From TrEMBL:
Region (Disordered): 58-85
Top-rank lineage group of the source organism: Bacteria
Annotated source species: Jatrophihabitans lederbergiae
Keyword annotations from UniProtKB, A to Z: Membrane, Transmembrane, Transmembrane helix
Compositional bias (Low complexity): 69-84
Protein name listed in UniProt: Uncharacterized protein
Presence of the UniProt keyword Transmembrane helix in the record: yes
Transmembrane segments: 28-51
Keyword Transmembrane carried by entry: yes
Length: 222
């Protein structure tokens, strides 16, 4: 019979067809992979470019931070808040006033802690004679506490905040301790400013007009 001896056209297929279909799929897969590689390369380039810009910014800022650190060093410097002709020798900031005071003032601080105290050591040369000035600015939570402290610290024999010389902080040519000195104080809201001034060499008198003027300048400074 003819249907057994002659192949039907519907069943006559290309003998290489099974090879062509896998090759077509391989081409599609290859194109997808190539596209993925291109996209990945672009993303990687973008990340590297962003990282480079960020790194260069950090490198520019580093020297600025170094300058800020060096300006805070305790070396002698002229300070804008000081009266004209004064030279700052040392300064610090503390929060434990009781640990940096003596006498009845220290006892007061144990019961009424301060918020902070800024201490400074400076020199000036009125009339050609060097004067050492020790100042402190004590800050309290309230103005009432500040008023109580000022009343105490201005009384004779009640102690004070320790000046930096008393705690061993000096400078080249500094006296071993603050000489008998003129005293001045002022309250500004919840802050109390105190200044003591004495000659670096020779004798000092608390009633010396020059020393009294210097002490008053110390509490009038910002």
């Amino acid at each position: 019979m003819s249907w057994l001896t002659e192949p039907d056209e519907e069943w006559d297929t290309d003998p290489d067809a099974y090879r062509k279909e896998p090759k077509s799929r391989l081409k599609v897969v290859a194109l997808v992979l190539a596209g993925w590689l291109v996209v990945s390369a672009l993303v990687l380039i973008g990340l590297l470019a962003f990282g480079g810009r960020h790194g260069s910014t950090s490198a520019i800022r580093a020297p600025e931070q170094g300058r800020q650190s060096s300006s805070a060093s305790p070396s002698p410097s002229r300070t804008a808040s000081l009266p004209s002709g004064w030279v700052q020798r040392a300064s610090d900031d503390k929060t434990d006033c009781a640990a940096h005071s003596y006498g009845r003032v220290q006892t007061f601080f144990t019961k009424t802690p301060c918020s902070s105290v800024h201490r400074r050591l400076a020199t000036t040369n009125p009339h050609g004679r060097t004067v050492v000035v020790a100042t402190s600015v004590v800050t309290f939570d309230t103005a009432a506490q500040a008023a109580t402290y000022r009343s105490l610290v201005t009384s004779d024999g009640t102690g004070n905040v320790s000046d930096l010389l008393r705690e061993g902080v000096g400078y080249p040519g500094a006296p071993a301790e603050l000489p008998a000195a003129a005293f001045a104080s002022r309250q500004s809201g919840n802050r109390v400013l105190v200044a003591e001034a004495g000659y670096a060499t020779g004798t000092s008198d608390a009633d010396d007009s020059t020393l009294k003027a210097v002490a008053t300048q110390g509490v009038d400074a910002p």
